[in-house]
Sequence to fold (174 residues):
Amino acid sequence: MALPGLLVEYLVSGAIAFIALSPVLHAPVAKLDTWLLPMLAVGLYVAGMIVDYLAWLLTRPLKPLVRRWAERKYNRWGSEAQSGTLRQAKIALYAPDLAKELMMRSSRDRIARGLIINSILAGHFLPGWQRPETYALIAFSIVLWAGFEKLSYSYELSADQLVDEKLARESTRR
Fold:
């Protein structure tokens, strides 16, 4: 993933986490001296990294289920045929435009994944959020992540199939 994408993803997740944790942190941003703002940005970035890692841990058991769902729908089996890293490297080598699209989709998935943790944080720390609607938001964020994960993985499988077909055509021409 390109640095600007990760920078934005982590800053977004970190900023939302900061808002959710603000009652505990007691740190009014409006009263910060301007020379401390770069430190705030670094703190938001690190918070975003932590949120993403926690979200990755939380969604890791669900990811194979979502991917099997996509594999069944598209009748293309990716996880057993080769590793995802190898598949993505092949796509990057032979179809750079498809690889860029995969990276953009991955960015969206990462933000959606972070929303799960941020929803949990908001429900726990923000006053007035300890209501049933919060559980609905958490459930919605899980469904949102699963849907995006399925779409991204389906795209990856389709891109892999197109690259395989392209390579097969090129090898028969030789």
Summary: The chain has one domain: 3-173. The helical segments are 3-25, 37-59, 63-74, 84-94, 96-125, 132-173.
